Fold this sequence. Notes:
Blueprint: E1 4-9, H1 14-23, H2 34-45, E2 48-54, E3 57-66, E4 71-79, H3 88-102, E5 107-110, H4 117-121
Helix pairs in contact: 1-2
Amino acid sequence: MTxxxxxxxxxxDPAVILxxxxxxxxxxxxxxxxxxxxxxxIISNSFCFVIARQGDEIIGMGRAISxxxxxxxxxxxxxxxxxxxxxxxxxxIRTLLGFLKEHKLQWIGLISEPGYERFYGNLGFNVMQNYxxxxxxxxx
Length: 140
């Protein structure tokens, strides 16, 4: 198997990244042409966007949003399904953390899908007891 490399980028093929979002179940499946522009902006406007590659193929991603001064949130960490369980996600997280720590960010958080507590716990994250995540819903 080819070695996996990790790259912090401001540009990547938006069609490939969109496909990775879709494989994770995080993006609509219709073919709206605006999606490619949206994905390009997600990549370029993230404080840190990491892609994992095997050869020329992008096989995973993750990103952090931040003000660059105090707090950062990690999100959208995923690896193509056939390559999960090989430590690639850990490599993405470690690359993100390295970048965030280089920028002296002290508070680094994330919200995970259920079932990943051990994965993130092994990377130094703790469950935030007595806190509840919120998401703005549609107006009623």
